[in-house]
Amino acid sequence: MIQLAASILSADFAHLADQVRAATEGGTSVIHFDVMDGHFVPNITIGPPVLQSLRKFTKLPVDCHLMIENPDQYIGDFAAAGANWISVHQEVCRHLDRTLHLIKSHNCRAGVVINPATPVDTLTEVLEIVDYVLVMSVNPGFGGQKLIPNTMRKLRQLSDLRARRGLNFLIEVDGGIGFDTVGEVVRSGGEILVAGNAVFGKGDPKTNAEKLLKTAQDAMMVKL
Ligand code: DX5
Ligand code: ZN
After folding, report:
1. pLDDT range class, residue 221, cuts 50, 70, 90
2. What one-character-per-residue DSSP string does 81-132 give?
3. Would the CB of 189 count as within 6 Å of ligand 1?
4. Quick check: is 174 catalytic?
5. Can you tell me whether residue 39 is helix, strand or coil?
6. What distance lies between CA 34 and its chain's CA centroid?
7. Ligand 2 centroid vs 169 CA: distance in angstroms?
8. Cα separation, 54 vs 59, whole angstroms
9. Which among 34, 37, 63, 131 is annotated as catalytic?
10. How sure is the predictor about 27, in pLDDT bands with cuts at 50, 70 and 90?
11. Any idea where the domains of the chain sit in the sequence?
12. Which contiguous run of DSSP H or E holds residue 43?
């Protein structure tokens, strides 16, 4: 099943509640919450206090994408603020197995993220533990970038691995997903589609979400 995870990074923060409501009415089923620290990525965004406020007006699962160094130090705070899913970057975790178990100990779904230059092979030993793998289709740090086509082959690789090993993690994709690229993303194996600019960039988030999901579903029909 295809799910849309609206990334609030491109939302108007002064009207966050309205924007999330509109995206939800358009069929968004996950709220993607991008956390950047200015160290791991060259940008700074939002943290637990914003999540705590967001939690009050949405029942949808909140998917915290931690683009930060030292995630172990903050996982408890994000869980306490209302995160349902938490993902950490393979590139920053010296003890990835421990970090993933830490996320689970807070009753959150645990995800691992790989940057465009990080191979799927680096995840071999953690695929049994994770609930989802997030494949970055842009270099993390900013919304509104262009999807890097090479990253698409990792989606196929992951779905093959999953079938071969009888696992059931979900495959999430993040960056540059829009009307022009979403077809290729789902045909390559993307299941949870993160979209910021395409949902909140311009126009009505409800209509944008609806259209994006429809384009994705139509592309799946062609695939079948
Ligand atoms: C990028 C973030 C993304 C971003 C995607 O570092 O992780 O979640 O919001 O934005 P778009 O959909 O605009 O590429
Ligand atoms: Zn993200």
Report:
1. confident
2. HT-SEEEEEGGG-TTHHHHHHHHHHTT-EEEEEE-TTS-GGGGTTTTTT-SE
3. no
4. yes
5. coil
6. 8
7. 18
8. 10
9. 34
10. very high
11. 3-223
12. none
* 3-state helix, strand and coil shares in percent for the chain, rounded to the nearest 5: 45, 20, 35
As a three-state string, the secondary structure of 154-205 is: HHHHHHHHHHHHCCCCEEEEECCCCCCCHHHHHHHCCCEEEECHHHHCCCCH
Kindly state the average pLDDT of the residues 194-208. Answer: 98
Looking at this protein, which amino acid is placed at residue 32? H
Buried-exposed string 202-217: b where 16+ CB fall within 10 A, e elsewhere: eeebbebbbbbbebbe
Q: Does the pTM exceed 0.85?
A: yes
Identify the CATH number of the domain defined by range 3-223.
Answer: 3.20.20.70
Mapped onto helix, strand or coil, the DSSP state of residue 12 is coil
User: In this model, does residue 7 exceed pLDDT 90?
Assistant: yes
